[in-house]
Write a structure and sequence with these properties.
Structural class: mainly alpha
Bound molecules: magnesium ion
Number of strands: 0
Order of helices and strands: HHHH
Shape: flat
Largest sheet: none
Number of domains: 2
Strand content: under 5%
């Protein structure tokens, strides 16, 4: 299955406005799943991860359509690279600060 072809078909069938609403709805569903797991972790209870996987997939698929429609593949790739680098640097800096605080 060609993912890009499915994205194009979905946008062409439902329209970009409807798929933007789908992104909003799927992000809300993912947020709710994260909240459920957070609450279970706080309470020391058990939780399943199948729904989390489902909602992550939904967000990836709907955002993939929007990314495709607006031609954002390269910009998203750049942003991911830059943000991952910044995250790694922040963690490194925090580790250095923690070591300085201890010594
Ligand atoms: Mg969903």
């Amino acid at each position: 299955m060609d993912e890009v072809k499915v994205y194009d078909k979905a946008i062409s069938h439902y329209g970009i406005k409807r798929q933007l609403v789908m992104v909003m709805e799927e992000c809300a569903e993912l947020s709710k799943e994260c909240s459920k797991i957070y609450r279970a972790l706080e309470a020391g209870g058990t939780f399943g991860i199948d729904n989390l996987a489902e909602e992550i997939a939904d967000v990836q698929i709907t955002t993939g359509q929007v990314q495709r429609f607006f031609g954002l593949k390269d910009k998203v790739k750049e942003q991911r690279k830059s943000k991952l680098k910044r995250l790694a640097e922040r963690i490194e800096n925090e580790n250095c600060k923690n070591q300085t605080d201890i010594s």
